[in-house]
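User: Could you check the structure of this?
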Amino acid sequence: MLVGAASRDDAAVYRIAPDRALVATVDFFTPIVDDPSAFGAIAAANSVSDIYAVGARPLFALGITAFPREKLDSGLLEKIVSGGATKLAEAGVPVVGGHSVDDPEPKFGYAVIGANTRSLLLAIVPVLVSVAFFLIADIDSPRFGVIRVSAQNLLSLAQEIARPAPSPGQ
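Assistant: Sure, the predicted structure tokens are below.
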């Protein structure tokens, strides 16, 4: 285990070969915007960004849904799921399954599995609400460097991190 619960990172990183690591994360939350499609897209981007944040490439996602059974006919859930699937498709991440439960409070997100084929591993260390520190470490070395990012620059950094990683050989 390269990154586990003790690190308090959003993603777990497990070495499966000397130069390869499996990355897993799960992220879901209650609606943070009124538009159901936008909520689904935000949930998807938030979930997959945990994979990109450690320098990995997402392989697939599993949806996680809590939604009130009595509101299934409203069309809201379809918009949430469609918004999420569309955002993941933009990143080339297939949704291959998932699970749903009846819950009076809607919640939505994804478990995303990825792989790191680079020698670089990034770990986000939440230090303060307004500042994030990024540890940059070689998988085969205990050495690391630190980059300090202000809250103002965090959004642009997150957008940059969320860009798909190049395929091996690119």
